[in-house]
Design brief:
- The chain is an alpha+beta fold.
- Strand 9 and strand 10 form a beta hairpin.
- Helix 24 packs antiparallel against helix 25 (about 690-700).
- About 55% of the residues are buried.
- Mean pLDDT is about 80; it is low at about 1-90, about 245-260 and about 360-410.
Length: about 1000
């Protein structure tokens, strides 16, 4: 199906449909799932108290220090029946706010208690934190309670415990949050003493990722410690308890008259009552990293105050002194985190992660360069120790800590900056210069690794929504757009003629203040020299933005990219780019073709043509033009070469090479937004969805007000099973731009959340956007009908959609709808119509999804030879994904023949080629048919956890959520085979979705099994 996500190609990612027919009397059928309320993501009861402000867990046994008064209960400590609320302790079964049913108390502390609860509205398990009623009337305490919600909700990252909401019911104030089941680092350290090096690195990498997300939002934790970091059974690490965190943009909660934080894990500047910033958290990261690697605290002392004093004037003993097997680079990383002077410390979590990544790369052990670890003796003069001691005593007795705004970051590489190139004033009478020089100026600016040229097409759309709408990006409109979109600077220009020559003037302006940052002028003898003047004029602007590259080097690198035999070709390229940005790929193709006709060596025009074909879903044509572009690499900038090679690997579905190429690009040009978007797409192609989410977050970080970036993050968050974030990002995108892509992202997130009526409403909005939106909406509405077991309704919706698609010449969409109809007809027992629909689909399109869906249908309908032929064709192709689907079809054929062991091998082979949701499901189905219930349970459990991937099984903008419900049926059969008393719950869940369906044979089978 044609992909209308502007930022990436439509790749044909095929997947199998539910197998509703089998020779077995009770077939194992394919499936897909809504969010499971009984998710394994949980909250360890023994560690619940660490979620409460002011109640740190017991200290590591290494420090030999006792917990302070008011200490949280340890894992084995019994909960007093009247501990938290006296006689008002909330009992299991209590319902709060007509929504949350308390299941059990997880822990209690000085401010309140944490409960395991069920959200009856969303049918999921959560953690619910309640503040003690006698404290709720204290404005300061209440403010801290609210602060946890306000600050933590700003931070959305898989490595941070998600906060959902703040509420009040019957005088009880509470926060609801993610329920994570696992153990804290404190527990891990207490049990093991220390952990293996690679395990420690993985834990700290995830911890740093969570902190990085917090720091991006201007939030520092201030109370990081092993008891506030949890790891679940899957290895996911999450930072929690932001109750002492504060925003770097506010005045914080520091004037309370009490010490804030846990002394054993404080930074030196925190002990000195100095201003804090993100580097304070980095020091604590060093302490925890040290403890994980060695099992010891670096500043062990007789008391917490003595330990805190030691870290202000002594260096830590290097971790390698405790264990010579610890790699030297890690020793240096920990030492740099523990620098007492924040200026000598890592300046950001990104820097720590970069050095860890460098160490882990192949050969990095011999190439990574760190400063030598300095002696750990005292390096603060002793006369100052008395002053430090006095400060510490004041702190213990209630010294008022103060935090101020985070100061500017230091470092050699400037922070990423976005720049918008406005429309240049064409003071000549020649239309050749309209929209001609601006795209080339973007290219010149992006020669600097830290500069991101803001998409002019996006900016023009934003200008059309200003209070005084305009289609022009003059200086005034460009500044307004830049301020609204968070762009730092704009570049304006003007071109005037003087005899046969020209004068080109440019100026960089601070978007907010209007202050001129730099300006430059160039005189040329004729129009042909104008392009060569562009990189020269960009030099002072790049310097004003922070580029230190010598001018000679800048011009040398840009030389080939700005040579062309025809300015008219550049003009046509500029027109094509405007059309491409506006979403008019067909028109852009004509303009790119005109540019190539005027200059057959114009590499950039070939690359643009490839992008346009990619947007239209014509991957073979895209591949062809990427290769043509590569024939002219000498006419590209370094950044463009990376981009075009990455585009080639993406177009050919070589996702590992795609990630490698774009990865090299972002190392050299970290501000490259498009690269991060395409990295996300490549990770998604490999079904490495969590990494796709991380890459999409980087794109959002660079362009926080970009609608496309938010849409991409929404899609991948939903694929990752985080439907709440998916919905939020889609709604944010819709506020920025009412696009069809955003409506689809929102509808899919709503499907994942079980909000069927809201999803239907969203699909109806989508169908009103444009022809392609209407086509996708029809598929979505049919998917919901099929999800609920209303197969006849789904067929009717798709029938109308096919007619519309054929009328609008959208053959691939029509064919995929016909393939969907064929599958539905099989489910309805209509063999002849099923074969007819599949045959017609194949006559219209040979796309991978169509061939796979048709093969499934034909196999179920008894047309085994045709299905086998389709599988053979898929197996002969190069890409692993296509060959994986061939193995799945062959596995289905073997399963149909009763060859269960052969089927298991084929499905296993398919998953080794590409680990897809449907491949895991089919493998589970084969295990079930073979009576291997434990193995089947394992595979179906994986499918449950990866449920987001089934929103679009083929990742081609065709919603396929209908494949999820059969997973509950098969899971019920497995649990029944295991003689588990809970098997009926899975069956009842299925009935809750399709119980009213009259055409679903599984409903009949389930009722028989339940004795209904």
């Amino acid at each position: 199906m044609s992909d209308f996500r502007e930022e990436k190609f439509d790749h044909e990612a095929a997947t199998l449909v539910p197998d509703s027919g089998s020779s077995a009397s009770s077939p194992a059928v394919p499936a897909f799932q809504t969010p499971s309320s009984g998710s394994a993501e949980g909250f360890n009861p023994s560690e619940a108290a660490t979620m409460l402000e002011g109640t740190p867990p017991p200290l590591s046994p290494i420090t030999h220090q006792n917990p302070p008064p008011g200490q949280a209960l340890g894992p084995s400590s019994p909960v007093s029946p009247t501990g938290t609320f006296g006689s008002l302790l909330l009992q299991p079964g209590t319902i709060i706010g007509n929504r949350y049913r308390l299941v059990q108390i997880l822990g209690e502390g000085g401010m309140g208690a944490v409960y395991k609860a069920r959200d009856m509205e969303l049918d999921r398990v959560i953690a619910l934190k309640v503040i003690r009623p006698e404290l709720a009337s204290n404005p300061e305490i209440l403010q801290r309670f609210k602060q946890e919600l306000i600050l933590a909700r700003q931070v959305t990252d898989r490595n941070v415990i998600r906060i959902f909401d703040l509420g009040e019911a019957d005088g009880i104030k509470y926060i609801t949050m993610e329920y994570l089941e696992g153990e804290t680092l404190y527990q891990i350290l207490r049990r093991h003493g220390k952990v293996p090096v690679q395990e420690a690195v993985d834990i700290m990498r995830q911890t740093l990722s969570g902190l990085q997300a917090a720091h991006r939002e201007g939030v520092i934790h201030r109370d990081l410690k092993p008891g506030n970091i949890m790891r679940d059974a899957s290895g996911r690490v999450a930072v929690m308890d932001f109750g002492l965190a504060r925003s770097l943009e506010g005045d914080g909660m520091t004037r309370t008259g009490t010490m804030m934080g846990t002394m054993e894990y404080m930074s030196p500047e925190q002990a000195h009552a100095k201003d804090l910033d993100a580097r304070s958290d980095i020091f604590t990261v060093g302490l925890i990293f040290y403890e994980l690697l060695t099992g010891k605290m670096p500043y062990a002392a007789e008391s917490a105050v003595a330990s805190l004093m030691k870290r202000t004037h002594e260096r830590a003993v290097p971790v390698s002194s405790h264990d010579a097997a610890i790699p030297r680079p890690l020793t240096s990383i920990v030492a740099k985190c523990l620098e007492s002077d924040p200026k000598l410390r890592y300046q950001s979590t990104a820097e720590v992660l970069r050095d860890i990544d460098n160490w882990q790369e192949k050969g990095a052990a011999s190439t990574l360069r760190f400063p030598d670890v300095r002696p750990w003796a005292r390096d603060i003069p002793w006369p100052l120790i008395g002053m430090i001691t006095a400060v510490l005593v004041l702190a213990v007795t209630g010294f008022l800590f103060r935090n101020k705004l985070l100061g500017p970051k230091t470092g050699a590489t400037p922070a990423p900056v976005s720049v918008l190139v406005a429309d240049f004033q064409n003071k000549t009478s020649d239309p050749l210069f309209d929209d001609t020089l601006e795209p080339m100026f973007n290219v010149a600016l992006e020669g600097a690794s830290f500069i991101n040229a803001y998409n002019r097409g996006t900016a023009r759309q934003a200008a059309a929504k200003l209070p005084n709408p305009t289609g022009k990006l003059d200086e005034n409109a460009a500044r307004l757009v830049a301020v609204n979109e968070g762009v730092a600077a704009i570049v304006t220009g003007s071109l005037s003629s003087r005899g046969s020559g020209y004068t080109l003037s440019v100026k960089a302006i601070d978007a907010v203040t209007g202050k001129t940052l730099a300006n430059a002028d160039a005189n040329t003898a004729n129009k042909d020299e104008l392009l060569l003047a562009v990189p020269k004029l960009a030099v002072p602007i790049r310097e004003a933005l922070g580029d230190t590259t010598p001018e000679s080097v800048q011009l040398e690198k840009a030389a080939g990219a700005f040579s062309t035999s025809s300015l008219a070709a550049v003009h046509q390229y500029g027109i094509a780019m405007e059309q491409l940005w506006a979403g008019n790929s067909e028109e852009a193709l004509r303009s790119f073709s005109n540019a190539i006709a005027l200059d057959s060596n114009f590499a950039r025009a070939y690359g643009g043509t490839a992008s346009a074909y990619g947007n239209l879903g014509k991957t073979q044509d895209a591949e062809k033009y990427v290769k043509l572009a590569m024939e002219h690499v000498d006419r590209m900038t370094e950044r463009e070469r990376y981009r075009v090679r990455g585009l080639y690997y993406y177009a050919t579905s070589n996702y590992p090479k795609c990630i490698e190429e774009y990865g090299e690009l972002v190392k050299r040009f970290p501000a490259d937004n498009v690269a991060w978007i395409n990295i996300a797409a490549c990770y998604s192609g490999l079904r490495r969805i969590p990494e796709a989410v991380d890459a999409a977050k980087r794109a959002v970080e660079i362009t926080p007000k970009g609608a496309v970036q938010r849409i991409i993050l929404s899609f991948y968050s939903s694929y990752n099973g985080d439907f709440i974030v998916g919905e939020r990002e889609a709604r944010t995108a819709l506020k920025l731009n009412l696009s069809s892509q955003a409506y689809l992202a929102l509808a899919e997130a709503q499907l994942g959340l079980g909000q069927m009526s809201q999803a239907i409403e969203t699909y109806h909005k989508l169908e009103k956007t444009d022809a392609l939106g209407a086509s996708v909406a029809a598929s979505g509405l049919a998917d919901i009908a099929s999800y609920e077991g209303r197969y006849a309704d789904a067929v009717g919706i798709l029938d109308k959609g096919v007619a519309t698609d054929l009328a609008t010449k959208n053959a691939d969409n029509a064919a995929e709808k016909l393939a969907g109809i064929s599958h539905l007809q099989v489910l309805r027992g209509q063999r002849a119509p099923a074969i007819g629909a599949a045959t017609k689909a194949l006559s219209i399109s040979q796309s991978v999804p169509v061939r796979v869906l048709a093969a499934q249908t034909l196999l179920e309908a008894g047309e085994v030879a045709t299905a086998q032929k389709l599988a053979d064709g898929l197996a002969s192709e190069v890409q692993p994904e296509t060959r994986a689907y061939a193995e799945i079809i062959r596995g289905d054929l073997a399963l149909q023949r009763g060859q269960k062991n052969e089927a298991i091998k084929m499905f296993t082979d398919a998953n080794q080629l590409l680990d897809t949701w449907i491949g895991r499901f089919e493998l589970g189905r084969a295990y079930l048919e073979a009576g291997l219930f434990v193995e089947a349970d394992s595979e179906f459990d994986r499918c449950m956890k990866r449920r987001g991937e089934a929103l679009e099984i083929f990742q081609d903008n065709v919603p396929m959520f209908a494949y999820f419900p059969p997973l509950y049926y098969n899971q019920g059969r497995v649990r029944e085979g295991l003689k588990s008393p809970g098997f009926a719950e899975a069956y009842r869940t299925y009935l809750g979705i399709r119980g009213k369906a009259s055409e679903d044979p599984l409903v009949v089978d389930i009722r028989r099994r339940l004795g209904q």
